[in-house]
Specification:
Chain lengths: 89, 452
């Protein structure tokens, strides 16, 4: 299963490190990263593969939400299909 | 690979423009529950509903979490009770409403529809008992919804039932006078009712349906409004195209949710209802879409044309996005559930007569209309007759959900709470139709050619 992770919040040191370390710890493989900063606002979208992950989607959602909140970020993890079905025929 | 713009667009639709799936509604046939003893019958339906829909709410919540799209309601629709209760030796179906209410509470759905009768051509014994039981059933239960289909293009209008429904609505209002006549908000009177509609209060599981089905109602007026902001000042070709594209995207989300719910519950997928269903929340209004097209306030001249374009473009855009489309599909115009409609009534731009005109081109009819408590039963019947005639002649679904609020006058407000919203009391034409309604009988089915 592939998931889309979106991270939005105030730019600061260590956002990419925190997210990628968390994913690596649970064997979630990053396939694509897209990131930009607009007016010091941090925007990142990651696509990751959870097929060999050592945790469920629900647990990953909760883990990243909590870690994000600690840094003042909003982190969402969603099944990729919601985006594919809307934008691809 | 998905682009960052696509991903951010989808999440903006959800977070800022209130894109949601309005309801996953499980249709359940109760035809195998019939029994002459009403207690056994009630036990049968309670057992069947709680067994069949046991996982509905949990599956809905799982899908919501995994895909990150809100699924506002999980609901149940059952075979019209007038049909399945008919063999019961009883002169009231109120116990059946209690059993439905208890089953809804056990499985955790917020509404259960199907306390219904289909009487467009005439009453059976069960239809009569059911309709008589409606006021008590709605006043003394929390989650049961009732509907009556009393007209169709093929059968004409059952004017006996039109007359009776005036009294039934007044009685239901009286029984819940301490709660702003909330019982009437759970009762819809239809012409040409669809048998697979997932939206309350008019949902039931039609007699031509499978044993169980999953029907999904999408929504998203806020998303359409936001998209139209990008084409301000452009011509109506651009407006229609923008609505179609947006409706396509909204419907795709509904299709995904419906397929997943169907697969996980092991229940066949029925239809997607392509509807723009507003809520009282800011940014979730159909009236604001019409205003975005260039009207100063909903109800101004031009509103009917704007709504016609919107309704048609939503269907055209949504049709290709789903494998099966049905239900009520179109734009709803419930007054108390739409912040823009409420405001339009308050400032005097939207009246009952203009709403009636709008129902000729919207998806349903006069919906969530609060009127003075002293509105007579025959006036309510006459409003129903007018609306049924529009449906019958135009071969479309129309409906009336009207709430005569005891003790309230024009200028007062009512608060229904939650998704049912709040509303000012609308003025009703006070000239009488008593002798017209007293006639009874049937209005014959209309001719379908020579349509001028």
């Amino acid at each position: 299963m592939r998931v889309v992770i979106t991270i939005i919040g105030q730019d600061q040191v260590g956002i990419v490190a925190m997210v990628s370390t968390t994913l690596a710890e649970h064997n979630v493989n990053i396939l694509d990263i897209n990131q930009n900063i607009i007016n010091s606002f941090f925007n990142m979208v990651m696509i990751a593969d959870m097929s060999a992950a050592r945790l469920s989607l629900k647990d990953l959602q909760q883990l990243l939400r909590e870690k994000g909140e600690a840094m003042g970020l909003e982190i969402k993890v969603q099944h990729e299909d919601i985006f594919k079905i809307m934008h691809r025929i | 690979m998905l682009s960052i713009q696509d991903i951010l667009e989808t999440n903006r639709m959800i977070a800022e423009n209130k894109l949601d799936v309005r309801t996953i509604t499980m249709g359940i046939s109760l035809r195998d529950c019939a029994h002459p003893d009403i207690e056994i019958f009630c036990r049968n339906i309670y057992d069947k509903i709680t067994r069949t829909a046991e996982r509905l709410v949990r599956v809905g919540e799982d899908i919501e979490a995994e895909y990150g799209v809100p699924i506002i309601n999980k609901r149940i629709a059952v075979t019209p009770i007038a049909i399945v209760a008919e063999s019961c030796r009883s002169d009231s179906y109120f116990p059946v409403a209690q059993a439905l209410d208890a089953a809804a509470k056990t499985v955790g759905v917020n509404f259960i529809g199907g306390f219904s009768a289909l009487v467009e051509k005439g009453y059976t014994k069960g239809d009569k008992i059911l309709i008589q039981s409606i006021p008590e059933a709605l006043a003394r239960t929390d989650r049961v919804c009732a509907s009556v289909n009393l007209a169709s293009t093929k059968a004409g209008i059952n004017m006996e039932c039109v007359r009776e429904m005036g009294y039934i609505i007044k009685h239901a209002a009286e029984l819940t006078r301490d709660r702003d006549a909330i019982a009437c908000a759970k009762l819809v009177v239809f012409a040409n009712v669809p048998e697979d509609n997932p939206f309350m209060a008019g949902a039931f599981h039609g007699v031509g349906e499978a044993e169980t089905t999953i029907n999904v109602g999408v929504s998203g007026p806020g998303v359409v409004k936001r998209a139209l902001e990008e084409v301000r000042g452009e011509n109506f070709g651009a407006v229609a195209e923008t609505i179609k594209r947006t409706a396509f995207k909204i419907t795709r989300v509904g299709q995904l949710v419906a397929q997943e719910a169907s697969r996980r519950l092991g229940v066949p997928f029925g239809i997607i209802d392509l509807s723009l269903a507003p809520t009282p929340a800011v940014g979730d209004s159909v009236a604001h879409i019409l205003e975005e097209m260039g009207l100063e306030s909903c109800g101004a001249p031009g509103t009917t044309a704007a709504l016609a374009l919107l309704n048609d473009a939503v269907k055209k855009g949504g049709l290709m996005a789903s494998s099966f489309v049905g239900g009520l599909s179109g734009a709803f115009i419930p007054v108390s559930e739409d912040a823009g409609m409420i405001r339009a009534v308050e400032i005097g731009s939207l009246t009952l007569e203009k709403l009636e005109a709008m129902t000729c081109v919207c998806s349903v009819g006069l919906d969530m209309i609060a009127v003075p408590g002293d509105t007579s039963a025959s006036t309510i019947s006459a409003i129903i007759a007018d609306e049924a005639a529009i449906g019958m002649i135009n071969n479309k679904t129309t409906a009336v959900r009207i709430i005569p609020v005891p003790g309230k006058q024009v200028g007062d407000r009512v608060e229904f709470g939650g998704l049912l919203g709040h509303s000012p009391i609308l003025a009703v034409n006070t000239f009488k139709a008593d002798d017209f309604i007293a006639r009874g009988g049937r209005i014959p089915a209309p001719i379908r050619s020579l349509t001028n």
